[in-house]
Amino acid sequence: MNESHDKLDLDWLAFCYAAGELDAEQAAAFESRLAENQDARERLAAIVGMTQQVARVPLVMPAQPVRSQTRQVYVRMAWLATGAAALLAAIWLGRNLADSHNDFASPGAGEVALADAWAESLVEPTVLTANEASVEPDLPLTAATSEGDENEVVDVPDWMLAALGGESSESSSLSDEEADEFEEMFPETLDWNALQDG
Amino acid sequence: VAEPEFDSGGSGEIRRTGNPAASELAPNRLNPDEVRRLYEAHSEELRRFLLGVCRDPQAAADAMQAALVKAIEQGHTARDESRKAWLFRVAFHEALATRRREATTERVLQTAVWHVGTEERETGAESATRREQAAAVRAAVAGLPADLQAVVRLRIHENLTFAEISARLAIPLGTALTRMRSALARLKTVLERHKP
């Protein structure tokens, strides 16, 4: 231990003695030293003088509290901003989740229209062409597909004839020209003359 | 025979009172001029030393006066080169005796020595040198790291014990001691450069 270190120790010991921080045993030991060591006495006088100088000067410490307060403000602002950002994110996320849920629950307008069209297509009566009608098993109007004679009279059920007759009686019946045109269009299907006569 | 008394107050004058015939009993005693020079040379340092021992201004003043009386009566027994050490040693024993006599031990154990200078701080006229020293001290303290400044403020200005500082700052006791010790070492280095 060099002399400088000894002096530092002696300064510290003297300060603790003057400050009343030594217990009785330590204080007695230091006083024994003071009784014989002039250097120890002078160190005690010096540390008391220096401490008094420090005590006389008002210790203004604006830097540390201001920094601390400023930092606290910054920290609070950061937390506030973080909280606000988290809240906004939560709101945005919540809305997105709700939208996606609604997408599954209620289809869009285009999809509704498509579904309606599909539904209508299922219930709309199919307009059968003559060829398509010829394959209808319930109807005996299958002359076109039959392999029989083109002039063979079709066996028309009575209920159909009644319906046609009613209609013809209520509405205008086909004129001859119209009948001819119709026959030209559908020569193989019906014997219109027989129908009208019937 | 009444003991001689000396006014060793702030004026710096040594005024002997009491029975002048006492000096005639020992012709080898220091003469008043020698005592005055001794006082002027060492009184400030001696006062701080006695304050450190007594931690009470009145007890320190009493010890100072008693030491000067001894200097008049027995100072001639010390060699010139060791007269200062002799004076301090005599003053130290007088301080212990005064402390015991005035039963200040219990009280001063709880009092920091630097809190006895209030009167001096309030009434003392600051010379240019003192203002310069005060500025140096202020700069030295301001130059300390914040954690050291905090301990200095709490220990010296608020007179908290190290245990209380430890609790206040929520630091170990050893840390508080280390910071104070480090602060004192730094302050000493800086202030010694500004010594008049």
Number of strands of chain A: 0
Largest interface: A-B, 35 and 48 residues
Shape descriptor of chain B: elongated
Hey, roughly how much beta strand do the residues of chain B contain? under 5%
Tell me roughly what share of residues is in helical segments of chain A.
Answer: over 70%
**Secondary-structure-derived class of chain A:** mainly alpha
Q: What structural category do the secondary elements of chain B indicate?
A: mainly alpha
Structure summary, number of beta strands of chain B: 2
Biggest sheet descriptor of chain A: none
Secondary-structure element order of chain A, as H and E?
HHHHHHHHH
Number of distinct helices of chain B: 9
Query: Which parts of chain B are unreliable, with pLDDT below 50 for 5 consecutive residues or more?
Result: 1-23
List its traits.
heterodimer; A: 198 residues; mainly alpha; 9 helices; 71% helix; B: 196 residues; two-stranded antiparallel ribbon; 2 strands; 2% strand; elongated; disordered N terminus
Overall description:
The complex is a heterodimer of chains A (198) and B (196). By secondary structure, chain A is mainly alpha-helical. The longest helix of chain A is centred in the middle third of the chain and has 43 residues. Chain A is rod-shaped. In chain A, 71% of the residues lie in helices and 0% in strands. Chain B has 196 residues and is mainly α. Chain B has a two-stranded antiparallel ribbon with strand order 1-2. The termini of chain B are far apart. The N terminus of chain B is likely disordered. Classes of the chains: A mainly alpha (198), B mainly alpha (196). The interface between A and B is large, with 35 and 48 residues.
